[in-house]
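Journal club prep — side note

Before the paper discussion, L.F. wants everyone to see what a predicted structure for a comparable chain looks like in token form. Sequence:
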Amino acid sequence: MPETTVIVTNEVGLHARPASAFVQTANKFLCDISVVYGENVGNAKSILTILTMGVNQNAEIKIVAEGNDADEALVALESLVKNDFEKTE
């Protein structure tokens, strides 16, 4: 199962606009995608789940994907986080 680890550098963490961009990007893919933050594991395609995880600035998250387009999903989500949630499409 492919995975990647990234640091969320956005000043508000993974909340509001960044969370929305993250979930919108995750929903473009058919594979199952999870976010791991500390002991919390959540569905990357659920805005409520992402918001309630409480991911703050400089937090390390792991993104795990499973399915046919998992590698592409990880590349897109990792790029989104590293580009401070600015969509590059």
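L.F.'s comment for the group: The radius of gyration is 11 Å. Keep this in mind when we get to the figures.
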